[in-house]
Amino acid sequence: xxxxxxxxxxxxxxxMYGLLALGYHVTWVVSRxxxxxxxxxxxxxxxxxxxxxxxxxxxxxxxxxxxLAGCAAFGVVLxxxxxxxxxxxxxxxxxxxxxxxxxxxxxxxxxxxxxEPRGMPSSLAAEPLTVFGVGVLPLQIVILVAxxxxxxxxxxxxxxxxxxxxxxxxxxxxxxxxxMGIDAARVTVFAxxxxxxxxxxxxxxxxxxxxxSADMGFVFGIKGFAAAxxxxxxNPWGVVxxxxxxxxxxxxxxxxxxxxxxxxxxxxxxxxxxYLRPHGLFGRAGVRKV
Amino acid sequence: xxxxxxxxxxxxxxLALPAAAGAAEPIPVGLVAALSGQSAVSGEAITRGLTVxxxxxxxxxxxxxxxxxxxxxxxxxNPGKGVAAARELIYxxxxxxxxxxxxxxxxxxxxxxxxxxxxxxxxxxxAGTGITRNGASPxxxxxxxxxxxxxxxxxxxxxxxxxxxxxxxxxLINNPWGESNxxxxxxxxxxxxxxxxxxxxxxxxxxxxxPQLTRLKGAGADAIILVxxxxxxxxVIRSLDRMGWSVPVISHWGISGGRFPELxxxxxxxxxxxxxxxxxxxxxxxxxxxxxxxxxxxAIKGPQDVIAPVGTAxxxxxxxxxxxxxxxxxxxxxxxIQAALxxxxxxxxxxxxxxxxxxxxxxxxxxxxxxxxxxxASGRIVPVE
Lengths: 290, 385
Description:
The complex is a heterodimer of chains A (290) and B (385).
Chain A (H helix, E strand, L loop, with lengths): L1 H30 L6 H18 L4 H28 L6 H20 L15 E3 L2 E3 L1 H23 L1 H11 L1 H6 L4 H23 L10 H15 L4 H22 L4 H15 L14
Antiparallel strand pairs in A: 1-2
Helix pairs in contact in A: 1-5, 1-8, 1-9, 1-10, 2-3, 2-4, 2-8, 2-9, 3-4, 3-8, 5-6, 9-10, 9-11, 10-11
Chain B lengths: L3 H21 L2 E7 L6 H20 L8 E7 L4 H14 L5 E3 L3 H14 L3 E3 L5 H4 L8 E3 L4 H14 L6 E6 L2 H17 L5 E5 L7 H9 L4 E5 L2 H14 L5 E3 L8 H5 L7 E4 L8 H13 L12 H21 L4 H8 L5 E2 L4 E2 L17 E6 L2 E4 L2
Helix pairs in contact in B: 2-12, 3-4, 6-7, 12-13
């Protein structure tokens, strides 16, 4: 019972870490930069979906694409103002600029959305199903399927379509890709939009299990990054698997050692894993040709 | 004549100046509370109680012939920011005294400052035992609110008598407030001859509390004693729903400082929790304060609209007690007010008749007998029958 319940809740949370980690992965492989505002974009997704459904009474199927488009738009703007200006100058200041953009977004949400956490209603989170004697919300299954499914789709698309190939080409050799007529700048913008939409989706999915508030994304953003590093930023499967593992490790630590140990154990595990495998559990050392 | 008149006017002006300034110069009193963030509702509730009391006092001529004025500072539920805010109130605004907010960690951090600067600090919400029982002498910290040690006794008494629990399990927020209650509940359980099934802690950001609750269930818990603010406490309730475990939940009052019924869903109504006051079963004084609240805040149309009523009620009584002390002290000098607070005459307040509110050894105006058990019903806080 304890084990089953922990596994289910750990995997559901882990799938969210995985979605965020996939977002970090996408921008990293394309542009060697990541959006440290991922946690805040996750919050943006939840806040937009909450405002549209509860505030304006939209049905969820209508609110979902609009909220995701809002997140993607934020990603596009962020890339333009907080990443590109630094990258073209060869500066790493995008790191701080994206952190700052996240804080800006959080405080804007505090101001516009309000200071109180709100409860997101969801028919998928009302009645638990009993699976092998464990109470599981339909939403938890949806989250798990969405997380793993998106990783699958992502891999399939990058391997099998011209867009995906263009993306991978930019990854392998930006200059050569440009010479072949691939617009590397546009691919990067697309990667930021995609990564932000993934984070927004994670926020919308997790909101009914949790609460919607301006600071909901902060810890998630950090844990998603931990998963991305743990999985090896280069590997889409790796980051999603690492997210699931991190969620599972957290839930099992809480179940068997008590919640006081959870944060110490999960981040201790990340450090240990990186010590043993510096390029991540599923990463490979990059080969530098001289 | 032409030279005499201006000179007369100057003399008159000089004579009038100090008197006029003295009469008009307000006495500032401070508030350090959460005005933003998860617990912003609590800061607003306290502000309302203080404001209504200050309006009454000023309408009756103020204190020492001077009006009171409230200076508010946001602590963002952060002890560091709270200390900076209190310093500002003491050194820059020269407040005669200041009130505190919902967060025990912030209030604990303010205690040494109040005692060092000899500025009375009046708690109106945070219930941490060590806030008033801080070992300082003289002690400048007073409180019109619940005290964890006494609330803990009350929660366990309710669990044993009403919920018929023999082995309550504890769900505590992982911060100094949870710690304060852990000690209190352990001591209260020992005194009441109850054996606790276990104690689990949770973080504000935890999205899932099933592992902790499953441990308690496995240890044979037959009731949950819950200590946490509205948002994480709501996750506890949702997790219980998901487990399909229907167990009595008896909560400290942290859940009254936010939108607990919205966050926790329908099961929120099953949670019994402690309050110091309810506007639903109030006497003539309660009706008078409610009328003043309705007048000042048009959104309030009845007792159901008083958000976080304990904050408002505690703050209202605390402000009146402080005004009495300033009047008795005859000055806004910190040590004089502190001595006056310890020797107040009996006073008929909103929550009860304080006879007296404080003594040299007891700086808590409310005791275990002043608490009431309540629950949410259709979003309103009403007494448990």
